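Are you able to produce any protein sequence you like plus the matching backbone structure tokens because I've never seen that pairing?
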Amino acid sequence: MYHHRPDQPCRPVLPVLRARTRYARPVAATMTGEPGSRQTRPGLIRSLLDRFGHLVHELSKFATVGGVAFLVDFALFNFMTAVQDVEQVTAKTISTVVAATFAFLGNRFWTWRHRRGGNPAREYALFFFFNAVGLGITVAVLAISRYGLGQVWPEVFQTPLADNIASYLVGTGLATLFRFWSYRRFVFVPAGTPAIPEAKHDRHRA
């Protein structure tokens, strides 16, 4: 047992307690699940799933509708070019418009039916506007392949195989990414603006 002698000054114990507390803090954080510990990893994964799970669900539905529309576009394009002898760019424009009509109905009444609260005429107009931009992307890729690169290597790029690759692999891939972003961002949006009621509520509280 330690006895204090009057001729010796007392040693401060506060720095010792602070040092012990400083070194013991990481252990406590690990046990309580504070930020930086391993206990927060499952919670982080769960929060990411809660935040982006609905987006994955919408993307799967959008891909299903797009897959069926792709088959309609593919069959109609090849029918018009192979059987009806329609020019390739014209046939692509017609087949894309028909497929886009099917895609609009599928996306409005299935993919984003939970967000269907706006004006149908507005949705219809914006849908076909952004779909026309996507069509322009697809047709531009086809035109570059057939009439641009085809002038240099006609035996490679002016063939049915090259037309389908340019239309459905490159062009449709780029156009699909643009359409999903634009449809979700501008076309199928929830009705109302939640920020306005919150602002009014904050003003009343103030």
Q: What stands out?
A: Residues 53-197 form one domain.
